[in-house]
Write a structure and sequence with these properties.
Helix content is 73%, strand content 0%. By secondary structure, it is mainly alpha-helical.
Length: 941
């Protein structure tokens, strides 16, 4: 290909113009480049220019060439065919120019090569790998070639397995294995650490997906090479730690992926890796080495061949690999001082702060599992040494962390350990001898010194709290309330993180279960009966948290206050005046600085207080709350901030539950809610709160005619809210059924007539709309019998139920929410097997297939079933959060005794036995495929 002098001259002119700082000159340069880029010779022009000009000008051409190669990598085949001559010239010459170019230019050329490799290799550039292999053994080219090979093989360690990738890896290994192993041998004679590190990374990449025959045949040589790297001595640690880390990563790859094939070879690294771990732990950059060493030993901890090694070295493993990483470190201490919520979330609950700590904890748990006697003996000796030599803080932190992390055997342990990794007597005795006494001393300090904790560091007291939190089921029951009272005082010493840790621990203790192992007995140990004798202690705790909330209303403090309110019940009402003042303060702060999680906890606290007034039948308390707080609540409601308005409406709903006579205020509020302007689509997030208010209001008050307008508005704007309100009205009185059915089916008929665009409908899919209609008719049929449903529907339009089911019943296959599934499948089961005379055989067949498909999907493909739930939740997301007492009431109103699958099975069996002629005509083999027939057969046996 001929490159004209004019093209070189134009390119030079463009680069000169681009270097100037005048906007018009830069634009001229860009226009020249734009014209040149349309020429198929453009990459060769750049290539020639780069080699014939100085480094600064050559660098500009190299950058342009890189950008062109990037564009080429994304071109389609139609454009590529016009560029083949240019690309062939680049592929033929670019590698040698790359290795000889100055560093600044070679960096850009390496990127150009990577784009060409991405597009051309291996199918259209077979000679590439051989050329690279030859250049690899030329000393002055070695590093640049290694760098290039590492870059383009990196993808082998993270891409998913595929045939094209497998083909490329095989060709790369075929061409590079021999030069690489020769280079490895040279490195053992005369190591060059920058080359050594790159070589090890390439070895890792090439072995990641599968073991190529060339590597398998030479495995002994490669393992000796890795062993050499791990044992290199006589150089500065800062020079070799990267290479040792990379070698250890390669060993770990074989340990985890090819352990069974090469376990003897893999095991031989144990002593070398152990020597690294036992060396100076302060070596710069040792984190990656240590992390890989931890993973290596974890992979081998259950190997029978390594049993003797672990049995003999448990104390040393603890000393060098576990203790330095498992206890409180600088990161935890920093978080403790500055970020309470992060400390609790990352360390207190899970002990996770960074990758290396997590890996150390995982190794420790594995050692406990397989070498429990040795670990127990080590812990006993460690604790004895702590008592006899010096009770320093660091040793105490280590012991506490080892006892907690070694005992945790499941995720549920965050709620308290009930299954222990080792003998539970060890943490029990440490509690009795150390933790209990230290807490008592701290308590006395606080009482005597007006909040001072004396010799104790706040982070140490937080660790005691963590110990109590995890081991609360080991502590004698008679100690628990005393310990809780001690920890409660940590709320008032002025340290924010310790205060929140104490509150979390108290909430954990007070919510302990009577039987933590049983899934059936969910009763709390500190229930209303058992709290009669400890009311004074609980009131002291409430006084402490009250004081803490006044200073800083943290989420942990509000959660603790809610727990104490539930336990104290009406005993708390002697202090109702200061509690109301506290609620006023919280609402004022919320108004000044709104945050959803804080608002949720404040209103949950508020609702818990009203709930106790309801449960203890204390209307005077509710009257006082209403009288003292109504003005402030009303002012916040009128501001109409979405979440706050939802919460306040639920508070009003609860207050209505206990009021014997509705106040004029609530009467006025109810009428204002009925105003059509409140049911506009812009208010959709508050619709569920309106309906929650209705749920309580209609218990004591009649349903007004204006509710018809609300129903019609919801049918056009928010069908989920229409369903919620319909379910409420259906439960109130069946007189509302004709209206509910007529409104929703008018909407359905319009949607299916092609006139939907004229309606103010939301973006829900037709499938979801059909599901809501099916849920409503199922609710009516289940509550008032199928005859009632058909009678009312026939008044509206005869045969419409049949038509709807025939056309839309396929939606049943995708229903997965628990309540909806039960309601709908119960209705359809009853219709098919008891009221089948009301529908045609064709409709019956479609319903039968849809129901069986639903059961089959849940049983055989639970991931798809869960996905259906997630999709529905996303479609219905409204931003509404139900306060706990309101949510309990809403769930109670929907409570169902029937489980849909046993109900279907029993009714189908009866149908088969009682209708032999109809069964003979059923033709299940024509309706269901073989797998579903087998499933159905097994289901009804």
């Amino acid at each position: 290909m001929i490159v004209s002098a004019d093209m070189i001259s134009n390119l030079n002119q463009a680069f000169l113009l681009l270097q100037q700082h005048q906007q018009d000159k830069i634009k001229q340069g860009e226009k020249i480049l734009l014209r040149l880029r349309d020429n198929v010779s453009y990459p060769i022009v750049l290539f020639e220019y780069m080699q014939t000009h100085n480094e600064q000008q050559g660098l500009r051409a190299a950058i342009e060439l890189k950008l062109w190669c990037k564009q080429y990598a994304n071109m389609d085949e139609l454009h590529i065919q016009y560029l083949q001559e240019s690309v062939m010239l680049l592929k033929k010459n670019l590698i040698m120019v790359y290795v000889k170019a100055p560093q600044s230019i070679s960096i850009q050329l390496r990127e150009s090569l990577l784009y060409l490799i991405q597009k051309e290799y291996p199918l259209n550039w077979m000679e590439f790998i051989n050329e690279v292999g030859q250049a690899l053994l030329i000393p002055e080219f070695t590093y640049k070639i290694l760098k290039l090979v590492r870059k383009f093989t990196n993808k082998y360690s993270y891409l998913g397995r595929s045939d094209p990738l497998y083909l490329e890896i095989n060709q790369t290994c075929d061409g590079l294995h021999n030069p690489l192993i020769q280079l490895a041998i040279l490195q053992t004679q005369r190591p060059d650490f920058k080359n050594l590190h790159q070589l090890l990374k390439i070895f890792y990449n090439l072995n990641y997906q599968d073991l190529h025959p060339a590597f398998e045949e030479n495995i002994q040589q490669w393992m000796e090479f890795l062993k050499y790297v791990l044992t290199i001595q006589g150089f500065q640690q800062s020079e070799i730690f990267k290479s040792k880390g990379a070698a250890l990563q390669c060993v770990l790859l074989y340990t985890t992926r090819y352990k069974e094939d090469f376990k003897d070879i893999v095991n031989m690294f144990c002593q070398e890796i152990w020597a690294i771990c036992a060396s100076d732990q302060k070596m710069i950059g040792n984190e990656k080495i240590t992390s890989n060493a931890l993973k290596y030993f974890k992979a081998l901890v259950n190997s029978k061949d390594m049993t003797q090694f672990f049995q003999q070295n448990v104390p040393l493993l603890m000393q060098h690999l576990i203790i330095p990483y498992i206890s409180i470190g600088k990161n935890e201490a920093d978080l403790f001082q500055s970020e309470p919520s992060s400390f609790i979330e990352l360390y207190f609950d899970y002990g996770i702060m960074d990758h290396i700590k997590t890996t150390a904890a995982d190794l420790y748990k594995s050692i406990v599992k397989f070498f429990r006697p040795q670990v127990e003996q080590y812990l006993i000796e460690k604790i004895s040494q702590f008592y006899s030599v010096s009770q320093d803080i660091h040793s105490e932190m280590v012991i506490i962390s080892m006892l907690i992390e070694g005992s945790i055997t499941s995720f549920s342990a965050k709620d308290g350990i009930i299954e222990f990794g080792f003998n539970s007597d060890i943490p029990s005795q440490f509690y009795e001898i150390t933790i209990k006494k230290k807490l008592e001393i701290a308590y006395n300090f606080i009482l005597q010194a007006d909040g001072s904790i004396g010799q104790f560091q706040p982070i140490m007291l937080a660790l005691y709290c963590r110990y109590i939190h995890f081991f609360k089921y080991l502590i004698p029951k008679q100690d628990l309330i005393v310990i809780a009272l001690v920890i409660s005082k940590f709320q008032i010493i002025g340290h924010q993180t310790l205060q929140e840790v104490a509150q979390l621990t108290l909430t954990s203790i007070l919510n302990m279960k009577q039987d933590p192992i049983s899934y059936l007995n969910r009763d709390l140990y500190f229930n209303s009966q058992s709290c009669i004798n400890i009311s004074n202690e609980l009131q002291q705790m409430f006084a402490d948290v009250y004081q803490a909330i006044n200073l800083e209303p943290s989420q942990q403090a509000l959660k603790l206050a809610r727990t104490l309110i539930s336990l104290l019940q009406n005993q708390l009402f002697v202090a109702i005046n200061p509690i109301i003042e506290l609620l006023k303060l919280l609402l004022t702060k919320l108004k000044q600085n709104y945050e959803f999680e804080q608002a949720k906890n404040v209103f949950e606290l508020f609702s818990n207080l009203i709930e106790q007034a309801i449960l203890t039948k204390s209307p005077a308390i509710a009257d006082q709350i209403q009288r003292d707080m109504l003005e402030q609540l009303d002012e916040m409601l009128r501001e109409n901030k979405g979440d706050v308005a939802c919460f306040i409406l639920q508070i009003y709903a609860l207050l209505n539950e206990i009021q014997t006579n509705a106040s004029p205020y609530y009467q006025g509020l109810f009428k204002s809610i009925l105003d059509p302007i409140n049911w506009d689509t812009s208010n959709q997030s508050i619709f569920p709160a309106y309906i929650a208010f209705f749920t309580y209001w209609f218990k004591k008050n009649p349903v007004p005619p204006e509710i018809q307008q609300v129903l019609r508005a919801l049918a056009q704007s928010n069908l989920q809210s229409y369903t919620l309100l319909s379910q409420l009205l259906i439960r109130v009185n069946q007189q509302w059924i004709p209206l509910i059915l007529s409104v929703i089916f008018e909407q359905y008929l319009l949607l299916n007539s092609g006139q939907a665009a004229e309606l103010k409908v939301n973006n829900l899919s037709q499938k979801l709309i059909n599901k809501e209609i099916l849920l409503i008719i199922s609710e009516i049929a289940n509550r008032y019998q199928i005859d009632t449903l058909f009678r009312f529907m026939n008044q509206f339009q005869p045969q419409l139920i049949e038509k709807f089911l025939y056309q839309e019943v396929q939606v049943v296959e995708f229903i997965s929410a628990r309540y909806e599934r039960t309601v709908i499948l119960k209705f359809l089961t009853t219709l098919m097997f008891k009221e089948y005379a009301k529908i045609s055989q064709q409709t019956w067949d479609l319903i039968f297939v849809a129901v069986v498909n639903n059961f089959y999907t849940k049983k055989k493909n639970p991931l798809a079933h869960v996905q259906n739930i997630q999709e529905r939740d996303e479609a219905q997301q409204s931003g509404f959060f139900a306060l706990h007492p309101v949510d309990t009431e809403l769930r109670r109103s929907k409570f169902l005794h029937h489980d849909e699958e046993p109900y279907f099975k029993d009714e189908f069996k009866k149908f088969l036995a009682q209708n032999p002629q109809r069964v003979a005509q059923l033709g299940v083999s024509n309706l269901l495929d073989e797998s579903r027939q087998i499933y159905l057969s097994q289901m009804v046996k």
